[in-house]
Specification:
Layout lengths: L4 H22 L3 H16 L6 H26 L1 H15 L5 H21 L3 H21 L5 H21 L2 H17 L3 H17 L3 H17 L6 H13 L3 H17 L4 H17 L3 H18 L2 H22 L5 H12 L6 H18 L2 H9 L10 H17 L3 H19 L5 H6 L5 H14 L2 H11 L15 H23 L4 H20 L12 H8 L3 E8 L2 E8 L2 E9 H18 L6 H23 L3 H4 L4 E4 L20 E3 L3 H8 L9 E5 L10 H5 L6 E3 L6 H8 L4 E5 L2 E2 L9 E4 L2 E4 H5 L7 E4 L8 E3 L3 E3 L1 H7 L4 E5 L5 H16 L4 H10 L7 E5 L4
Length: 872
């Protein structure tokens, strides 16, 4: 029997309507999709071909239509309806005569059935069904004459789906096997987009087990593949990258990622559930950075959207963020409404367990903190007993919150030993996470998760007034980046290319600005390239083993006749721990905010005073104001310590805003050698580094400098031999090559501090900017770097008093000393300071002493500091 032309035409029309219906569904036009699919099914059921070939084609069309309709029915009528529809489809598949076609359809229907089960949270059932689907797909491949991409594609898809399910089940080995095989097969058969999908899923697996750099590498690889294919990068990749950054404590960076994802998501009306995920994650990032208003706004938007979407877990997560905001507001104010703990516990009790057990546990921990603050310790203890121990894959922030609850409760009951034990255990867990981080930003960002634990420990030690114990805790908790051996150089051609693009774009922006042309598009592209370079920097490189925290006897021995002052704050209380010849004293210094405000005002006055040719009247006004702020800081920070310090040289470990203080400007410290370090541990490592008096000196002059500040030949005259790079010779490549393994590298160049992207703070050279990232990435960074440029000692202060900027990046990566200004410096003042400094240095003076003498000539115009070590 031969099929009629009408039957063949009807089948083809039904197939075309099916394709249109799938396209409409993927675009979020669900009503249109259902209309097209029902019309297609009606057409298919209007014929009953007798010809065997046509009948098989008709049967396959009906099966695929019914399978799609069943999947959509699960979204609208529920899981049971979807599964029932697929059961009917499976019966139809048995009637397909061709075994290869039957295997193809069995695999496809099984895959769809597995996805329905996974989406409903039935992970184990879904994994089993996907395994059956995979068996059909692999049999079909084995029976083929030769493997071709069309036969491999369904296997890759099923492996990816099952690998993701294994990830969610915590079956790490099985997940890695499935996803790695999916990537390998897709790559071998040229299915690049599917390889990118599987690599993305592998990134989520790496994140699940806590390997943030590996996750970021996977995400980066996936994004590169999508772009190379000319495909849009899935917004979810940006979401997952942000989630990885949050694990690393980089909440600001995560927020920036999400702010780029949100507009595209909002424009896509089909992405309601995914948009809610992005909004929820943005709420988490805002909460972590202390932007409680934005956190509340985003959590509310996510909750409303998730209610419409019907995801109970998502609604719970969004509600929980709102409760965390309410809890934080109450804890900050010190006024906890009686109703708030009850509301939080009511939410926890209403959650279904075990499915939402982690959310319920988090809510109960919030209630514990609230009850502790209210003083109802028995209630707090009862609630805490209901919080289970964390599992192997429990997120670090959940672990830290549990430790914090236990420590706060112990402290409130007067069990200080137990409280300190909880803090130590929490910080040890955090160390384990930190040891796996790759880039400088990741390493420093993890401190965010332990911030409240460390604040509690410092507050407890301050209350008992034990200076030695406070010194130990400060070293244990602050500036963890510097506890690690320097970053190992890793060649990354893509990162090098991106930096070259940024350098070229920077020059193009300067030229466009000079020519009066628009710069908006160039700046936008430069910002995008910077973001991309920063992403790669997050997972480039690897840190060496952690150094031990400096012990007090080691510090005392290294200090010799010097003194160390380590500042710390708890709430608004500012203190100093003073170490002098084995004696350790604790001195209370008043308001931390008052000191921070004086530091900010002094810095502003010095910036205003910096230009070389100000009117005399303006100089007098600005100098008077700067002297007043310097006197205030001196009176608060230094004079109370004079009886302990005597006239000793100083090592200063600042805190927060005090990193911006030019210490040589303070009257009591005029002409005193001072070294600034992020911790005693970092200072000790810098002091113990190897110095060579006969090492190479490199003097670099950038473009556009006045004759005075750029006269490196005059500086070179102080040394028996020095490499001078200027004009066309002062290129980025030449400077990097010459500076590698140098003893001193002096840069007379315009500089820019990037507070939002510190590793891309830069020095302007002949062919474009030299970034901190590049100089720090040398195999052997210069042992001493002198930055005769604006503000490049400034840092972005991360949680844990973690300074990150041009100078600190160099110190963390192996340089032992950086001399740089903390505010703007006039060209003539900079030139005079540097000439004096190098003359004294070449004559044999220790760097800190040479700098102190140079600053003392005109302190307000010479706000330089010596960072790291002060001796050579």
């Amino acid at each position: 029997m031969i099929a009629s032309r009408d039957e063949i035409a009807i089948i083809r029309e039904a197939r075309a309507l099916h394709r249109d219906g799938v396209d409409a569904s993927c675009s979020g036009r669900h009503r249109e999709a259902m209309r097209l699919l029902h019309r297609a099914r009606a057409l298919a059921e209007s014929v009953d071909p007798g010809d065997p070939v046509t009948r098989q084609e008709w049967l396959v069309t009906r099966i695929r239509l019914s399978s799609t309709l069943s999947a959509l029915a699960a979204d609208t009528a529920g899981l049971a309806a979807g599964l029932a529809g697929l059961d009917e489809v499976r019966a139809l598949v048995e009637d397909v005569p061709d075994p290869l076609v039957r295997a193809e359809l069995s695999g496809s229907v099984g895959h769809n059935r597995g996805l329905l089960l996974l989406n409903a949270g039935l992970l184990e059932e879904g994994v089993a069904v996907l395994g059956e689907a995979l068996a059909h797909e692999e049999w079909r491949l084995s029976a083929a004459d030769e493997p071709v991409p069309s036969l491999v594609e369904p296997i890759v898809k099923t492996l990816r789906s099952r690998g993701t399910a294994h990830t969610n089940l915590g079956s790490i080995t099985q997940a890695r096997q499935d996803l790695t095989r999916a990537v390998a097969l897709a790559t071998e058969f040229g299915l690049v987009n599917f390889a990118a999908d599987a690599s993305h899923a592998l990134g989520r697996l790496e994140l699940r087990i806590g390997d943030v750099p590996a996750a970021l590498r996977r995400y980066d690889s996936s994004e590169r593949a999508y772009r190379n294919l000319g495909l849009a990068v899935p917004p979810l990749l940006g979401l997952h990258r942000a989630q990885a950054l949050l694990v690393a404590g980089l909440a600001d960076e995560a927020g920036d990622q999400l702010d780029h994802v949100l507009p595209a998501m909002r424009a896509d009306q089909a992405a309601t559930g995914e948009l809610a995920d992005v909004e929820l994650t943005r709420a988490v990032a805002a909460f972590m950075t202390g932007d409680l208003g934005l956190a509340r706004e985003m959590a509310s938007a996510a909750r409303q959207r998730m209610r419409r979407w019907g995801c109970e877990t998502c609604v719970a997560n969004a509600t929980l963020i709102g409760l965390r905001v309410d809890t934080e507001v109450a804890l900050r104010s010190g006024r906890v409404p009686r109703s708030l703990p009850a509301r939080v516990l009511g939410f926890a009790d209403a959650l279904p367990v075990p499915r939402l057990a982690e959310q319920a546990a988090t809510a109960r921990m919030l209630a514990v903190r609230l009850e502790v603050r209210r003083g109802d310790l028995d209630a707090a203890e009862r609630v805490l007993e209901g919080v289970p121990r964390p599992g192997r894959l429990t997120a670090i922030d959940h672990r830290m919150l549990r430790r914090l609850c236990r420590a706060e409760l112990a402290a409130a009951r007067g069990r200080r030993t137990a409280a300190f034990a909880e803090v130590r255990a929490g910080l040890a867990e955090l160390d384990h996470v930190r040891d796996r981080m790759g880039g400088l930003e990741l390493l420093s960002g993890t401190a965010l998760h332990g911030r409240e634990l460390t604040e509690l420990a410092v507050g407890l030690v301050l209350a008992e007034g034990n200076a030695r114990r406070l010194f130990a805790w400060l070293e244990r908790t602050r500036a963890q980046t510097y506890r690690y051996e320097p970053l190992t150089r890793v060649d990354n051609p893509e990162l090098a290319e991106l930096i070259a693009e940024v350098r070229s774009l920077t020059q193009s922006i300067h030229k466009a600005h000079h020519d009066g042309h628009p710069t908006g598009a160039l700046r936008a592209r430069r910002a995008e390239r910077l973001r991309k370079a920063n992403q790669i920097g997050w997972h480039s490189g690897s840190w060496g083993s952690p150094r031990p925290v400096a012990k007090l006897p080691e510090v005392v021995a290294q200090l010799g006749g010097r003194a160390l002052v380590s500042f710390a704050s708890s709430g608004d209380a500012l203190v100093a721990v003073v170490v002098v010849e084995g004696d350790v004293r604790l001195v209370h210094l008043g308001s931390a905010e008052a000191a921070a405000e004086s530091a900010r005002m002094l810095n502003a006055d010095l910036n205003a005073l910096a230009p070389d040719h100000l009117p005399e009247a303006l100089v007098r006004v600005l100098s008077t104001s700067a002297h007043r702020q310097a006197e205030r800081l001196d009176a608060q920070l230094v004079r109370p310590l004079v009886g302990l310090l005597g006239d000793r040289d100083l090592v200063v470990v600042p805190t927060g805003a005090l990193y911006a203080v030019p210490w040589g400007v303070l009257p009591t410290l005029h002409a005193r050698p001072i070294v600034v370090a992020p911790s005693a541990t970092a200072w000790l490592a810098a002091e113990r580094g190897e110095w060579r008096r006969d090492g190479r000196t490199v003097l670099v002059r950038g473009p556009g400098l006045p004759a005075a500040v750029g006269e490196i030949a005059k500086l070179g005259a102080h040394y028996s031999s020095a490499a001078l790079l200027s004009g066309e010779g002062a290129t980025v490549a030449a400077v990097l090559s010459t500076s590698d393994d140098a003893e001193i590298a002096h840069f007379a160049a315009h500089g820019v501090h990037e507070p939002e992207n510190a590793l891309f703070s830069r020095l302007e050279l002949t062919d474009g900017p030299l970034y901190a990232h590049e100089l720090a990435n040398l195999p052997h960074p210069p042992r001493q770097v002198v930055l005769a440029a604006c503000e490049l000692a400034l840092n972005r202060i991360r949680p844990g008093d973690e300074p990150l900027g041009f100078a600190s990046a160099l110190l963390a990566s192996g340089s032992q000393m950086v001399v740089a200004p903390v505010s703007r410096v006039g060209d003539q003042a900079s030139a005079a300071t540097m000439d004096y400094y190098h003359r004294r240095l070449a004559a044999g003076a220790q760097p800190a002493l040479a700098l102190a003498d140079a600053i003392a000539v005109d302190p307000l115009r010479r706000p330089f500091v010596c960072l790291g070590s002060g001796q050579s």
